[in-house]
Amino acid sequence: MSERTYKLPSGNELTVAKNKTVWYGLPGTKSILSDFYSILDLLALVDSLQQQVTERDAVIQELRVNNQAWQTDLLKEQQSTGKLRKDLAERDRTIAQYHPLREDMNGD
To answer: In the chain, what are the domain boundaries?
Structure first.
């Protein structure tokens, strides 16, 4: 595991070193995590991240619902388009069959 540093909402940083020690403080002035306020700051970060995850989950669910509705609408439109094409083809056949100029067009 390499060293990882996390910026906290307070402006401090939390660093997890390769040897799994946890350092806390402003950049350049960190000390080993041990005091109560450091833990509160870390918990505030966890709360913030949990809130972000909850909000993103809600957005993802909304997008899924919208996507399903759009897919349903698209399927209906495709079916309607197919029916209209069949109707137009039938109309064209009927016109071609009964049009009075049909014989003239064939040179009869």
So the answer is: 4-98
